[in-house]
Amino acid sequence: LVAYALGITNVNPLQYNLLFERFLNPARKSMPDIDVDFADDKREEVISYVKEKYGENSVAQIITFNRLSSKQVIRDVARVLKIPIPQVDNITKWIPSKFGRVFTIDQALAEVPELAWLKKSDDPTIQELLKYARILEGMNRNASKHAAGVVITPGDVSDFVPLATYGDESTVVTQFNMKDLEEAGLLKMDFLGLDTLSIIRDTLELVKQNRGIEINIDEIPTDDKRTYELFGRGQTTAVFQFESAPMREYLKKLKPSSITDLAAMNALYRPGPMDFIDDFISRKHGKKQIVYPHPVLESILKETYGIIVYQEQVIQIANRVAGMSLADADLLRRAMGKKDLKAMQEQREKFIAGAGKNNISKKVAEEIFEAIDKFANYGFNKSHAVAYSIVAYQTAYLKAHFLEEFLAANLTNKYDNTDKVTILLEDCRKLGVKVQPPDINHPTVNFKVIKGEIIFGMAAIKNVGVQAVQEIQSVHENLGRDFTSIYDFCSHIDTRVVNKRALEGLVLAGAFDSFGGSRAQHFGEIEEALAFGSKLKSVKESHTDSLFASSTDTMDFQLPSLPDVRPWDNKERLAKERQGLG
Question: Is 478:443 a contact under the CB 8 Å cutoff?
Answer without folding.
Answer: no
